[in-house]
Design a protein that fits this description.
- The chain is mostly helical and 382 residues long.
- It has two domains: 18-141; 157-371, no CATH class.
- It is built from 17 helices and four strands.
- The strands form two sheets. Strands 1-2 form a two-stranded antiparallel ribbon. The chain has a two-stranded antiparallel ribbon with strand order 3-4.
- Helix 1 packs across helix 5, helix 4 (74-80) runs parallel beside helix 6 (108-120) and helix 12 runs parallel beside helix 14.
- The longest helix has 16 residues, at 86-101.
Length: 382
């Protein structure tokens, strides 16, 4: 029987203390541990996420050992969180789904338990359309129908003015637009903005990587291009590991739980390969979240987004409206904190840092500079 959400008089809005963090850890691990026990990646991710998001450290292996002696049911967990609202409960369930999605294959028993925990937390109706997936040969497909049920569940081509696409040129949310000179010109005009502004940063970001501006041949879908502004704003490079950081940041910054589907998409592309393609451009490339240091980088991206002011849907932002603002001003307005020392030590890099660009992008950027008759100046040169 689902535990109802609290009313305004009884809801608990304070950050969790050490005791409640321990409770949440017991619940999450009860839901996501396979029969053989937590995998190494699950343990590393859980430790990093709890540290980054709560400020308290947990030992997933020790928690799991305690659960072997005293199991913890979904009903007990929901009762212990009876004073927490849908936002708090939703973030807990998202943590479950994150550490569930990295299992390959995903055991049906784990998928069933996570669904049970979500239902007991009275979140079944809120999250089912985002997180429910079918089973295929024992693996739960992370590729829920993202377009219909995830972040794009209410996407309306008629209300996508923030993409600045010409009338009739956009045929789907992830569709490319390769013949819109006005759109391409708008992006190219960012090069006229002062150095240090967000728009100028995005312009240089495209040039140094040899990217085509949206609206021109070979360009990324305009909706996907929305995340490129976040690379500059939040200071993340463009290797696959940095893409995971960017989408973790985007998903956590938005209070709409549907935004989690963007992160589920990226994990499914770049860790398990459960999703072959996504966002109109990305292709599966397995094993990146399990790379050394990535758990710390992932957790820190979630932390930074959680500490930003308000709820921010960066994929629906009209970035051109703020393109002339200095990046540092925008960061202060958002109250965006810097990266943690742990994330930096783990290798988190910015778009201009050595290691912040892939060899393919570096080569493409150099070739573009040569074709345009200018000297190449970009990341990876130090």
């Amino acid at each position: 029987m689902p535990v109802p959400l609290p009313d305004a008089a009884s809801v608990l809005l304070l950050p969790p203390d050490a005791a409640e963090v321990a409770t949440v850890a017991r619940g999450v691990i009860s839901a996501v541990a396979p029969e053989a026990g937590l995998t190494g990646l699950q343990q590393t991710l859980l430790a990093a996420m709890f540290h980054s998001l709560t400020g308290f450290d947990i030992d997933p292996a020790a928690v799991q050992a305690g659960l072997a002696e005293k199991p913890y049911s979904a009903q007990e967990f929901a009762q212990d969180l009876h004073r927490r609202n849908a936002a708090f409960r939703g973030r807990v369930v998202q943590m479950m789904f994150t550490t569930e999605l990295v299992l390959d294959p995903l055991p049906a028993a784990v998928a069933g338990r996570v669904a049970e925990f979500a239902a007991e937390l009275a979140l079944h109706d809120d999250l089912e359309d985002v997180l429910h997936a079918s089973a295929d040969r024992g693996r739960r497909l992370a590729a829920i129908d993202f377009d219909r049920n995830g972040y794009l569940h209410d996407f309306d081509l008629g209300h996508a003015g923030h993409l600045h696409v010409g009338d009739g040129a956009l045929h789907g949310p992830w569709a490319p637009v390769e013949d819109d000179p006005a759109l391409a010109g708008r992006w190219a005009s960012l090069g006229g903005l002062p150095v240090g502004t967000l728009g100028r940063g995005v312009y240089e970001f495209y040039k140094t990587r040899g990217f085509s501006f949206p609206g021109s041949p070979g360009s990324a879908p305009p909706l996907l291009a929305q995340h490129d502004w976040v690379h500059i704003l939040a200071d993340y490079g463009t290797r696959v590991e940095s893409e995971i950081e960017v989408f973790a940041f985007i998903a956590r910054a938005n209070d709409d739980l549907h935004a989690f589907s963007l992160l589920a998409m990226v994990v499914s592309l770049f860790e398990t390969g459960a999703l072959a393609t996504g966002a109109g451009l990305f292709e599966a490339d397995r094993g990146h979240l399990s790379q050394p240091g990535m758990a710390a980088r992932f957790g820190d991206a979630l932390r930074r987004a959680a500490l930003c002011s308000g709820s921010n849907d960066f994929m629906a932002t009209d970035w051109f409206a703020v393109a002339d603002k200095p990046v540092e001003v925008l960061r202060k307005e958002l109250m965006l904190p810097g990266k943690s020392d742990a994330a930096l030590r783990a290798g988190s890099v910015g778009p201009w840092d050595v290691g912040g660009i892939s060899p393919f992008q570096l080569d493409a950027g150099r070739k573009l500079a040569e074709a345009e008759g200018r000297e190449y100046a970009g990341p990876g040169l130090g």
